[in-house]
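Check this:
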Amino acid sequence: MCEQNPEGKDYTYFSNKHSTWSRIDMVWVSKSLVTIIDNIKILNRDLSDHCPLFLEINKKMTPKKWRLNDNLLKKEEDLEKIKGMIKEYFGFNDITETKPQIIWDAFKAVLRGSLIKLNANKRKQRELEISKLRIEIEVKEKELKANPKNQSTKRILDNLLKQKANWDLEKIANQLKWVKQNAFENANKPGKWLARLIRKKRQNQQIISIKKKDGIVTRNEDIREEFKIFYEKLYSKDPIKPESIMDYLVKQKLGKITEEQRLNLNKEITYKEICTAIKSLESNKAPGPDGFTAAFYKIDQNEMIHFLKKICNQALQEKIIPDSWKEATIIMIPKENLDLLDVRNYRPISLLNSDYKIFTKILADRMKNFLVYWIGEDQTGFLPSRNIKDNVRIIVDAIEYFEQNNQKEVGFLALDAEKAFDNLNWNFFKFLSQELDLGLQIQNGINSIYEEQWAKIQINGQETGKIKINKGTRQGCPLSPLLFIFALEVLLKAINKDENLQGIRLDKQNYKLRAFADDLICIIENPRQNIQKWIMKIEEIGNVAGFKINMNKTKILTKNISKVKQKELGETSGFETPTKIKYLGIWISAKNNQLLDLNYSVKWKEIQRDLDKWSNLNVSLLGRIAFIKMNVLPKLLYLFQNIPIIRKASILKNWQKALMKFIWKKQKARIKYSTMISPKIQGGFGVPDLKIYHEACALNWIKDWIKLEKIKILNLEGHELRRGWHGYLWYNKFKIEKQFGNHFIRSALIKIWDKYKR
């Protein structure tokens, strides 16, 4: 409900009996109408003891944004027409002296007009045929009225009516066919169809009100203006001097990349790379401002791809890109469990043109191959062969370390960066590329994108005017996360090099921090004495890169520190000191024995509520199994992978019973349990066996003990052990050395290993 007159006080009903006024009349409208209400007022009583309400709605007609109708790409005859248009266009224009970038943007404009015309012609043709049919029916009906006994006219009219009925039936049948086919194909397997059926009712994306300094605005124009003002300020140019960035980077002594890496980054873009990038585009994603979907680029048109190759390589050589690549449409995604009256609590996602994404995907793949070697193992985000569970594992092992070394004080600083991706200074990663000597071509490619950018913000289906983007990486761009971790790695390297910043030190190895993109957690020994050093180090890079600490959301979890000292730490640092923090979706406290209750118990209660809610849905046995695979298993599997600590078999057994109860609708099972959990290839139903999944995840941890590859993790996990890992795995030394089982994680894992060891 939205109060339109929060400050005024008026009434709608007068009680003659009590001589009192009350306000009991309301107007209920959908969210989409709330923001276009111009005026609402209470009129004088006339025919009733209730006052009439007057509501004025300002429904302005806004031009509809064009988007390619992908159905035009499905029929062979339409596809051939489109391919012919493309071939003809490039045949005429590829030989001119006009800049390729202008030719490319003009190509999209010309083709857009042709596709609009083609779509309109198809619709008109159909409407014309139906209109002719109706006229013929009308003529024959008049003839039949004039001469009811004319059998010839009657037969012709019957045929015409059948044709009309066939047109109508064909239209309805196509709709029903899609609905039935979609239901038939998707009702019994994980997918969007089932997801829509069981998910919580999605909050309408309509933004109906926003806070401003002097109150709350509810009109579309005012809401758009608030977002425009906020993002114009957010994306305004930082007053950071280029000289200060260069001085900072030179002091870091980052070194240069290898010649082989430089060659791979700067080689010419090939036809094959473009085709690979096109295949990777997701077909169902919303297009950028030009309206061309990913499906358009997948029609395998040589002329178009060859010309796009020319555009991409010219960007690498001359730092020139088409103007359409500089544009974006920003949509707002509300963040969960936050005040949606605040413009800061929306995540800006850029809708970018598909051709731009093809180019940046190629650059991203090249950068990824380089960054996997240059970025240290502390960063696990967006890189191949990096695993999010290693971050949680290090933190859990660190808590065990300080559990045994309880004379040492420690703080785990869960750092939150304010609008991390949106505040990144462009000059920082440009100068960083120069400092590492990445090469001219890759620098030109990146700089061509981050020289000039514009965007329109789309709110409630309507766009603001253009705003200039002067900083930040576009969320929605394939290159964006890699540029972010590229820049952030400078901070990570600086922290690891600084001997004044104390973490854990074991066997000449430091354990100071872990990062997954901008989710950063620091391990700070003696935090009361050292916290200011850490803050200064982080602010040092923040002053040149735009990385800003969000003081309201940054928290520090302490261990081996009294409450009095904890309070002192909070006052010194300005950070909250809670008893638990959430890192990468896992609740962590100062005691690892609380992991089960904080994570598994809470998650299972949430799952149980969902199962109760879904139990009344009219879904088949196979559909219910699909529910579990899609909405239950991923939630538990994430916990299994990150904290495989369940010791009691009864816990998993009870959970499995609850799942089977849901599958059989609380009735007696009619198929053997062993058949239900057997794989489909063996004639079973493939119901997830939670015990097997948990044990598999535990064995995946133990695999590191066997292979001895992740030395840094293993040194911390077994910091106090007297023997090598294989002694405990193969020779049962854990039974002799009781200290092995004192570790909360190790004791859970070795129990599973002992079961499967041969």
